[in-house]
Specification:
extended; alpha+beta; two-stranded antiparallel ribbon; 10% strand
Length: 99
């Protein structure tokens, strides 16, 4: 029990220290591309990723080099699984941001 309490305190301390390193204000509304369900590509602004109804943000980089034709399926399986889980956990008739 004591070890768990110490671990929690250390974890909290680490989170506070990490947050203090991030600091600063984003001064540019960065844009990136998103691929929708039907394969359409459109631009999404950083400011569009946050709001009252958006409580989570998952950022993933397809870590692959110039000699690879596509991302490694092992690495891309993780965000694919999250996407499927998010679809299942929305109320019936509401696909949320994946509609």
């Amino acid at each position: 029990m004591r070890a768990g309490i110490r671990l929690q305190a250390k974890s909290t301390s680490c989170c506070v220290e990490t947050a203090s390193l991030l600091g600063g204000v984003v001064t540019e509304d960065y844009a990136s591309e998103e691929i929708a369900g039907e394969g359409q590509v459109h631009t999404v602004r950083l400011s569009e990723l946050f709001g009252d109804s958006k409580t989570s943000l998952f950022v993933y980089s397809f870590m692959y080099g110039s000699r690879m034709e596509s991302p490694c399926s092992m690495f891309s399986s993780f965000p694919d699984a999250l996407n499927a889980s998010a679809r299942r956990n929305h109320p019936p008739g509401d696909a949320g941001p994946w509609s």
